[in-house]
Each structure stands twice: as C-alpha cells, then as structure tokens.
Design goal:
Blueprint: H1 2-19, E1 28-31, E2 34-42, H2 48-58, E3 64-68, E4 73-74, E5 80-81, E6 85-89, E7 95-99, E8 104-115, E9 118-131, E10 136-148, H3 170-189
C-alpha cells in the first residue's frame, strides 16, 4: 500500500511539474501561456545611420525549409516506403517600416537554435527606436513564433507560438533572440 501511495504521489508531482510554466526574465512578456514580446534597451544611443547599418548586417530573414516523414509506411511485403514531405516557409519582407525623422525602424527576422539534436527556427519582428534625449535605443522583439525544422513521423505544422510550459523550453527561444540582440549591441558599440 505504501509503495502504491508513493507511486501515485510521484505521478501527481510529475504531472503538476510538467504543467507549470518556465520562469522567464522580467523583460519577457507573455500573453496567456505564450511568449508575446521581449524588450531590451541599449546605451549609449548612436546615429540612426549606424543603427540601420547594424540591422542590415545582423538581422537574417531567410526562408525556412520544414520537413517530415508523416506519409511513410511499410508495404505488405515489409518494405519501408520513406515519403519525405517538405515545404519552404517563405520569409516576409525584411524591412517593414522606417522613419528617419523619428529614428524608428521595424524589420522581420529569424534565428535558430538546437536543443537535444533537434533544430528550431524562431521568427520575430524587431521594432527599434533611438531615443536621443535619453541616450538609449529601445528594442522590442514581438510577433515571435517557432518551428521545428524536422518532425519525423509527425506532420510538420510550421511556425507556432512559443508556449511557456516546461516541456516547450521557451527559455531556449528567448536565449536565441537575446543572441540576436547581443550581436546588434556589439555592432552598435563598434
């Protein structure tokens, strides 16, 4: 009886832990149970021409190839038929908006990361504004979504919100976006 009680307690603990959310930094905003935006600030402010150059050098916005083997099957004679499905998720326009007077620019971009031999792509929109009177640059990454590049025998559904539950590993996606911010900051400082 004690063993059954311990097993039930363990199962309940694992279930509750799996349903919890990953603690994320204060600069990450969530809506419901998904990451909605990440804010950063960079000092000192630099010329807007340099901001545009650093964005051009550091923001990638490539098309993403998504694949799966969802249609694969074993024939009646035991032969395996590997049906590889793939499609390209085309990137939206990189430059969305630029206002030289307000020193404000909006661009689309993507980055990626690997976690336990699984590769992911992360898409985002970056809103960046130079605030000269405060000597800083505000960065807002929003419209954030993620796709697993290869899903094996499951259908690859492409880009989806980044959920905050433990199994979804939202912290890894946040780190990937932070790496983009760090590259921008390095360029702005040089």
């Amino acid at each position: 009886m004690k063993k059954k009680l311990k097993l039930m307690t363990c199962a309940i603990t694992l279930t509750l832990t799996a349903c919890g959310s990953v603690p994320l930094p204060d600069n990450v905003t969530t809506t419901g149970n998904a990451v909605s935006s990440i804010r950063y600030s960079h000092t000192p402010a630099v010329s807007f021409d340099k901001v545009k150059r650093c964005i051009a050098l550091n923001i990638n916005n490539d098309n993403v190839r998504l694949t799966d083997n969802a249609g694969s099957f074993v024939g009646y004679k035991g032969r395996y038929y590997n049906i590889n499905n793939s499609h390209t998720d085309f990137a939206p326009n990189t430059l969305v908006f630029v206002d030289d007077n307000q020193q404000y620019i909006v661009v689309n971009g993507n980055t990626g990361y690997a976690l336990r031999m699984i590769n992911y792509a992360v898409r985002f929109r970056l809103q960046l504004q130079t605030v000269a009177n405060e000597n800083k640059i505000n960065m807002l990454f929003d419209t954030i979504s993620r796709a697993q590049l290869y899903t094996g025998s499951s259908t690859n559904n492409g880009f989806n919100p980044i959920y905050t539950q433990y199994g979804a590993h939202p912290d890894e996606a946040v780190k990937a976006i932070e790496a983009v911010k760090n590259n921008l900051a390095l360029c702005l400082n040089n």
